[in-house]
Design goal:
44% helix; 6-stranded mixed sheet; single chain; alpha/beta; Rossmann fold; 13 helices
Length: 339
């Protein structure tokens, strides 16, 4: 079916394309176009099922009413839930959400940011960045562009962000494991480990051990590649459990790692682990309510992260002032201890 253009509406009504454009873009009154003519244009546009070209309008008016959301992995329930709440908050203000996945690839993130922001496809960005120094955001264009970081922040980069208190959550879940009698905790981290959320989780883990004078062992902190989580968890976890029979807890620093561990337990039938090893995860997903062994988890305030980041980026879009102090929002987490 042929897409209806402004020219088609103009031809049907025997008026100029410019007049039709003014009416469609809500400028009929300011240009002195009669209410009757405006009504005819709108009715004909509806009859011909005209839909405006969002990107063309953005280039013409400088506003698209779109906000971009860049996340590391859209298949992760953590990000999909945040996207749901952000989309709801944006829709209430007449905005739509465009979601892109960077796959923890800095170059991909850079290209997407350049495309969406510098080409004016979106009015603002919400980003879970993989960058470690913020260099891709230091161009003159991006310094003034409405950007809110979520999940991760850039320690040496002045920016707006909404994140969970990763240190607090990690400290508290480790503290709980220790109170359950665990002294030889195996922690699984995921690359890139320099990301702020992961660094804060590792620090919380180490500080909880230190609180109880439990020595930190470097061999008990294993890094797993983001691009090969299942295979590396299978390989490294089985190796550690076969050589270190004193492991009394497995703490994964995100939910993908926890899911991979559960798959290993089922694949190899390691039933004895279910009785003697506690399993804990930073992040909470619905799956954890139904699996054995029970998963102790850190729940992040996903609704608040999504809603607050959306509201903040809209505030930045509407703001006319420059040089304002960045908003730095750190939200508390909660530990879910399942029996």
């Amino acid at each position: 079916m042929k897409k209806t253009l402004l020219e088609d509406i103009a031809k049907e009504l025997n008026v100029s394309k410019t007049l039709v454009s003014m009416v469609i873009n809500g400028k009929g009154d300011s240009y002195g176009i009669s209410k009757k003519t405006q009504q005819k244009v709108l009715e004909k546009a509806s009859e011909l099922q005209y839909t405006p070209n969002v990107f063309a309008r953005a280039l013409r008016t400088g506003k698209s009413n779109l906000v971009g959301l860049l996340v590391a992995d859209i298949s992760n329930p953590f990000y999909s839930q945040i996207a749901k709440y952000a989309e709801k908050a944006l829709a209430a203000k007449g905005y739509n959400l465009m979601v892109c996945s960077t796959e923890e690839d800095i170059e991909r993130e850079k290209k997407l940011v350049q495309l969406l922001a510098e080409q004016q496809i979106v009015d603002g960005l919400i980003i879970a960045t993989t960058s470690n120094d913020g260099s891709i955001y230091k161009t003159d264009r991006l310094k003034k562009f409405p950007i809110v970081f979520i999940d991760r922040y850039l320690p040496d980069f002045a920016a707006n962000y909404v994140v969970a208190d990763n240190y607090q959550g990690s400290f508290e879940i480790t503290d709980l494991l220790i109170h359950k009698g665990c002294k030889n905790i195996l922690a699984l981290n995921v690359s890139p480990a320099y990301i702020s959320s992961l660094k804060d989780r590792v620090k919380g883990f180490k500080d909880a051990l230190k609180k109880y004078n439990i020595p930190f062992k470097q061999e008990n902190l294993i890094e797993i590649s983001f691009n090969n989580i299942k295979n590396e968890v299978r390989e490294k976890l089985v190796k550690v459990l076969n050589t270190n029979t004193n492991i009394d807890a497995i703490y994964t620093l995100n939910n993908h790692l926890a899911t991979a561990c559960l798959e290993v337990f089922n694949e190899f039938g390691i039933d004895k682990l279910k009785n003697k090893i506690h399993v804990a995860s930073f992040d909470d997903i619905d799956l954890f309510n139904f699996v054995k062994p029970s998963i102790i988890s850190v729940a992040q305030p996903l609704e608040k992260i999504g809603t607050e980041s959306a509201n903040l980026v809209l505030k930045l879009i509407d703001s006319k002032s420059e040089g304002a102090e960045p908003v730095k929002m750190v939200l508390r987490t909660s530990v879910i201890s399942r029996n």
